[in-house]
Amino acid sequence: MNAATMNHVQHAAHTIGGKLVGVTDLTMRFGGLTALDQLNMHINEGEVLGLLGPNGSGKTTFFNVLTGLYKASSGSIIYQGQEVIGQTPQEIYRSGVARTFQRSRLSLPLTVFDNIVIGDYQHMNHGLFFNLFQRKAFRAEYDAYVSKVEALLNIFSPPLVARMFEPVGTFTMIDRRRIEVCRALLSQPRLLLLDEPSAGMTHDETEALMDDILQVRGKLENLTIVLIEHEMNVIERITDRCIVFNYGKKIAEGTYAEITADPNVQTAYLGEAE
After folding, report:
1. Angle (CA) 141 146 149, round 5°
2. What are the distances in angstroms from CA 97 to CA 1, 66, 271?
């Protein structure tokens, strides 16, 4: 079975449901700069949505607003029936939204296990009393996290299981990306935001990482993925639907074939329509 056929089968086997996120008139200003300009869009449950656009078009700013890192100047984001604007990043994370970043946020001296588990600190027990005086509970929680990380690595990249307690600094770029995605997945999110996951990788590494992401998508129920990516072959292969940003606005929406044929998209990327 070739890659195109496998991709078709994986997409067909995954059910896309109703609206998970609704964005209405979302605006984000930084002084005199308008990064998001009355943006209107939606994210469907279970889909892989690609966000495209030239650098500076507002894609990462949208992620930052959706995850609570920035508070929008105006507008609304409704996720699972609840308003996101005004919630803290911790509250949004606990509601089932997780992400990766353009630049790696791994701690290279720490192990794979430590880097993955750090991402789920919001769900951990904290405090000196718990760590010192509730040793059985502490050990049970630790063992539970070991089992969760092993299970996740077995889904995403089985060879990493045997190296779970090795420092991340000894790993290749693609394995570091895998570790970052696993960290985001540990909390079992409903919505996973991937910000340029292929950045800094070779073509073959990118293809391998996309294989992993498609495999995870097929095995984890109720997972919706939004992907910012500049590699068009990645977008074509992995997405169900695409939205194109330019100057903080949505200028096109549809399948990969539809948006690449859109004159507005051609103008945004090439400077002129064919």
Report:
1. 120
2. 34, 9, 35
Pick the closest to residue 180 from 110, 89, 122 (CA basis): 110
Q: What span, in angstroms and rounded, lies between the C-alpha atoms of 185 and 149?
A: 10
Do 9 and 28 fall within a single domain?
yes
Token pair 């910000």: residue: 195
CB 178 within 8 A of CB 162: no
Name the pTM for this structure: 0.86
Report how many domains make up the chain: 2
pLDDT in tens, 174-204: 999 999 999 999 989 999 999 999 888 888 9
Residue 190, φ and ψ in degrees, nearest 5: -90, -30
Query: Is residue 204 located within the same domain as residue 234?
Result: yes
The CATH number for 242's domain is: 3.40.50.300
Q: Domain range holding 209?
A: 1-96+189-274
Domain stops at, among 171, 187, 203: 187
Q: What is the pLDDT of residue 118?
A: 86
Parallel, antiparallel or unpaired: strands 97-99 and 191-195? parallel
Strands 33-44 and 19-30: antiparallel
Domain stop point among 166, 187, 208: 187
Which residue's structure tokens are 């996973």?
Answer: 192
Whether 269 has a pLDDT exceeding 60, the answer reads: yes
Give the C-alpha separation, 24 to 122, whole Å: 29
Instruction: Report d(CA 18, CA 264) in Å as an integer.
Output: 27
Q: Residue 48 and residue 220: Cα distance in Å, rounded?
A: 13
Helix (H) or strand (E) holding 224: strand 224-228
- Which pLDDT score, from 0 to 100, does residue 163 have? 96
Token pair listed for 269: 């990327």
